[in-house]
Amino acid sequence: MTFLPLLCLFVRLNPTSSMKMNWCSTTWSGHCCEATFGWTYHFSNQTMNWTQAREWCQAHFTDMVVIQEQAENDYIVSILPNKDRTPYYWIGITKNHINETWRWIGNNSTWVGEHSWAEKEPNNKHVAEFCVELYVNNRSNRGKWNDETCANEKSPVCYKAQCNDTSCVNGRCWETINNTTCLCEPGYEGDKCQTAVECPPLSQPGNGDFHCSPGGRTFRTTCRFKCHTGFVINGSSDVTCEANRTWSDPQPFCAAVKCPPLPQPADGNHSCSDEGQIFNSTCHFKCHWGFFMMGSSAVTCAANGYWTGPRPACTSNYMWSKPFVLVEIHWDAI
Length: 334
Ligand SMILES: [Ca+2]
What we know:
The chain has helices spanning 50-60, 70-79, 318-333, and strands spanning 7-11, 21-25, 31-34, 40-44, 63-64, 89-94, 103-104, 131-134, 145-148, 155-160, 171-176, 179-184, 188-189, 195-196, 208-212, 222-227, 231-234, 238-240, 253-256, 268-272, 282-287, 292-294, 298-300, 313-315. The protein has 334 residues and is mainly beta. Among the domains are: 40-160, Mannose-Binding Protein A, subunit A (Mannose-Binding Protein A, Chain A); 208-256, Complement Module, domain 1, CATH 2.10.70; 268-319, Complement Module, domain 1 (Ribbon), CATH 2.10.70. Strands 3, 4, 5, 6, 7, 8, 9 and 10 form an 8-stranded mixed sheet that branches. Strands 15-16-18 form a 3-stranded antiparallel sheet, with no helix packed on it. Strand 3 and strand 4 form a beta hairpin. The longest helix has 16 residues, at 318-333. The chain binds calcium ion. Calcium ion binds at residues 121-123, 125, 129, 146-148.
């Protein structure tokens, strides 16, 4: 085996394109290579039947060449040496039956351009022309396709994939003739889809706190809100950052616990520190002139949503109110 010098040139495939092609050409055991930032294309000058050609491609590279658009077809034609006559080159599109769709075996795609076939092709001339050759010559059918009998011998054209398992962290690697692109899964961005998108910052709720899973406010992070004693959460306690950069629910807030309504006592009235009679509100009771209070003169709305004591009553009978005082004095004395 003889290794010949590697020649690398930098050329632009398209003068309007900013993408620079890394064009390498070498001769190694009778075949050459063409390198781009995406797939690299390879061919052999040796001829073989279609099945052998595919095996050769798979043994040395990724598979027989896949063409996904007209520009790729044109590009491949431009790098292959001209041939005066058949045999030309095998490309990786085939079918198993006359009624089947032509399919690229490298990636199972089905692209066929409007002007891909040569004139009067595919003609299935020999009944089972289920493989395709690419004309590379100086005639009018240059770059066109012809369906052919797979047992015929032609030169294989192969590709080597540049994408691998680590090309895109959270996405699919897409190869083109002059680039590889990561198509990111929803929720990720960056040239390798390595960055999770972020949701807007959350703010600390009044009378409460929140805690987020590792990631802060990135995609799939969940934050849980909790309220301080005497406050209840209003809204969803858990919010999750979604792929569209928004939280799954509005940020909840903490509302003070409410105690049951406290009606005015008969023959008296009360005044409360808060109209809403909520957590920590205290209501002070007064009895009208000539009435005596039976019970505590103030109750407070507790964290559990109950008042700290029963509402006092106002009585006109001094003796009804007195025993409570006497009892208290009695126990205090002991
Ligand atoms: Ca044909």
